[in-house]
């Protein structure tokens, strides 16, 4: 109930978001999180190995092929040298030429097959990393989503994981065969002419030293570039999500400019990576050219002096090219690995965060399973009870280098926060089984936070929330939530069909049951207006439905599961009088014998409640029936008068 506009869960959420977010200059009428993103932990090569070793059998086979190809390549200069000697002696070539051709063909076939295997395995690495990241994202504590941008998280799944492919496709595994080629070429060159080899090694050492010094800068620049890509994704997701509001406010061009500014920032960081990479890439080519010129000049002099033969000089030059080629692959591998490690740092930052239930065993070594209708172990206890509950939202995000449970539970390690914003201050009340309780109060009083604590999206800082007499922290989360049907005021409709949305919480429900619950919440017209029936698409975020229809669909989803406890956050606020009456009848029917807790603003909801709890500034200021509270609680009387409740 409100004196001006409906007090919504969004008001409460926005209020605490504003408390967390430092003030900054805005280029748009919509709030934007300010400040640079935390740098996040730097990934190490050891952290990259698990992603690669998942495909160990294929990579071993690729390494074997690489070694075979290396020996085939090393044999070619020897055969060329033999061909030159035979030609100089004016003798028939015989089968040497055919052996040389066979080696070239075998090397080509091995190289092509190797390329295919590496590309396929690279895609496998991307897939496995995405699976890990998706699994982790959907199991993170709700508090993490309070402080992170959706677009940035999506970017880590899409863009950052793609960077891992380059580790396999740009020379890392091929370096096994390249090492054989490199060492074999060095040995052959040492046998042919140690002097020429010494000059060549000098050039190579200079090149390797330069690449080593530049590789660290590639990793740092790549991490920063991927973070900027995440900022772009977050900005685009935010603008598209509010595109109607942006158009209506005449803010389109300002939003375009803001998103373009983020895109330009990503471009600048990408150019920075390109600049550093541009210093590394040509080093192999320069080393090869300098080595070739040195060998050609000094080698020609040594041929003229009789130190080596022409055939040996040609073989040495061929081995030189074979030595430089894997060196170039190694330089490419260093660059790709450092770029991948920059992206992996952002991936690992999320993977290192604890799951929502990571500390549950510390809180309750033996998590209990509650039974049907919340009988638990204490059948005479109230369905829900709050016992001197204090709760505060963290005002800053925890240090990503020291991931700890973001829940402000008194039993868990304290996150790295500068201050906390109290929301609930010593809240105590009970909800008897099978009764209907209404929570009323001004915006920001803590009503939606109470429902979030019952769902155990957060744990209290002090005190306890109990179900059936048992502390929620002693209950298995999955079983706990199976006992609760939760309908947010802004309950999202998932892109897909009506059936998809209904089956989200009741995957085994039949089509007949789905149709029955839809008609019960007055969505029969939606069901009938499309020939696809339950298969009718609802559009992204339910755009094909009206606001009231989206809300009723969310309620239908909860009613279909028919849990022992229903939590309704202003569930009828978007409905007109006729639909509200039909909705109330549907809720009354399904709520019979069940516990119902509603955040209420309307006369009908309040009067129908068995008991009303009045909240103000995180405290319970009154409890009783409508008539009792009108007489005893001034705040309730004021709210009631403005809502025509008396």
Automatic annotation (TrEMBL):
CDD domains per UniProt: ABC_6TM_LmrA_like
Any one GO MF annotation of this record: ATP binding
Residue ranges crossing the lipid bilayer per the database entry: 58-75, 95-113, 172-191, 197-214, 276-298, 304-325
Protein's name in the database: ABC transporter ATP-binding protein
Organism: Agromyces lapidis
Main localization category: membrane
Keywords (A to Z) from UniProt: ATP-binding, Membrane, Nucleotide-binding, Transmembrane, Transmembrane helix
Limits of the ABC transmembrane type-1 domain: 60-339
Subcellular location: Cell membrane
Chain spans, region Disordered: 1-41, 397-420
Pfam families membership: ABC_membrane (PF00664), ABC_tran (PF00005)
SUPFAM superfamilies: ABC transporter transmembrane region (SSF90123), P-loop containing nucleoside triphosphate hydrolases (SSF52540)
Membrane topology according to the record: Multi-pass membrane protein
Biased composition annotated in UniProt, kind: Basic and acidic residues: 1-15
Domain ABC transporter: 384-642
């Amino acid at each position: 109930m409100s004196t001006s506009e409906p007090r919504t869960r969004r008001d409460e959420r926005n209020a605490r978001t504003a408390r967390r977010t430092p003030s900054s200059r805005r280029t748009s009428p919509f709030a934007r999180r300010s400040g640079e993103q935390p740098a996040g932990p730097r990934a190490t090569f050891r952290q990259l190995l698990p992603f690669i070793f998942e495909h160990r059998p294929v990579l071993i086979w690729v390494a074997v092929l690489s070694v075979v190809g290396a020996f085939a390549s090393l044999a070619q200069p020897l055969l060329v040298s033999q061909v030159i000697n035979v030609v100089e002696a004016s003798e028939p070539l015989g089968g040497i030429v055919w052996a040389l051709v066979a080696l070239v063909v075998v090397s080509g076939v091995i190289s092509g097959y190797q390329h295919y295997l590496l590309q396929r395995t690279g895609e496998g690495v991307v897939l496995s990393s995405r699976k890990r990241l998706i699994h982790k994202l959907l199991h993170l504590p709700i508090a993490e989503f309070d402080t992170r941008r959706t677009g940035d998280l999506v970017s880590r799944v899409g863009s950052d994981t793609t960077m891992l492919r380059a580790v396999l496709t740009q020379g890392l595994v091929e370096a096994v065969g390249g090492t054989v080629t490199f060492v074999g070429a060095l040995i052959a060159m040492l046998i042919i002419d140690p002097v020429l080899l010494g000059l060549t090694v000098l050039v190579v050492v200079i090149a390797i030293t330069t690449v080593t010094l530049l590789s660290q800068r590639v990793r740092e620049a790549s991490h920063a570039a991927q973070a900027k890509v995440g900022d772009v994704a977050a900005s685009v997701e935010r603008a598209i999500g509010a595109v109607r509001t942006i158009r209506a406010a005449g803010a389109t061009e300002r939003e375009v400019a803001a998103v373009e500014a983020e895109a330009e920032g990503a471009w600048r960081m990408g150019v920075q990576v390109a600049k550093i990479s541009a210093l590394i890439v040509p080093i192999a080519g320069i080393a090869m050219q300098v080595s070739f010129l040195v060998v050609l000049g000094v080698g020609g002099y040594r041929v003229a002096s009789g130190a080596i033969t022409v055939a040996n000089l040609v073989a040495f030059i061929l081995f030189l090219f074979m030595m430089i080629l894997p060196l170039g692959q190694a330089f490419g591998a260093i660059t790709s690995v450092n770029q991948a490690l920059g992206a992996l740092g952002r991936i690992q930052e999320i993977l290192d965060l604890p799951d929502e239930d990571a500390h549950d065993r510390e809180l309750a070594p033996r998590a209990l399973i509650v039974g049907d209708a919340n009988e638990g172990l204490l059948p005479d206890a109230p369905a829900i009870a709050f016992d001197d509950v204090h709760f505060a939202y963290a005002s800053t995000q925890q240090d990503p280098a020291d991931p700890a449970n973001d829940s402000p539970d008194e039993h868990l390690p304290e996150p790295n926060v500068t201050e906390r914003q109290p929301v609930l201050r010593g809240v105590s009340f009970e909800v008897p089984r099978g009764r209907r309780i209404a929570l009323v109060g001004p915006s920001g009083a803590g009503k939606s936070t109470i429902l979030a604590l019952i769902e155990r999206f957060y744990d209290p800082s002090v005190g306890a929330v109990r179900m059936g007499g048992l502390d929620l922290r002693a209950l298995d989360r999955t079983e706990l939530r199976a006992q609760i049907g939760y309908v947010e005021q802004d309950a999202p409709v998932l892109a897909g069909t009506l059936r998809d949305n209904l089956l989200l919480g009741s995957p085994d429900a039949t089509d007949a049951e789905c149709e029955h619950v839809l008609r019960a919440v007055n969505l029969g017209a939606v069901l009938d207006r499309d020939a696809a029936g339950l298969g009718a698409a609802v559009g992204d975020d339910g755009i094909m439905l009206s606001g009231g229809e989206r809300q009723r669909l969310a309620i239908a989803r909860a009613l279909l599961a028919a849990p022992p406890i229903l939590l309704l956050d202003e569930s009828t606020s978007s409905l007109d009088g006729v639909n509200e009456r039909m909705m109330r009848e549907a809720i009354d029917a399904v709520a019979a014998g069940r516990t119902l807790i509603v955040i209420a603003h309307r006369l009908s909801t309040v009067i129908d409640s068995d008991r009303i709890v009045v909240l103000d500034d995180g405290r319970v200021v009154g409890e009783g029936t409508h008539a009792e509270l009108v007489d005893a609680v001034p705040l309730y009387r004021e709210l009631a008068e403005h809502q025509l409740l008396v």
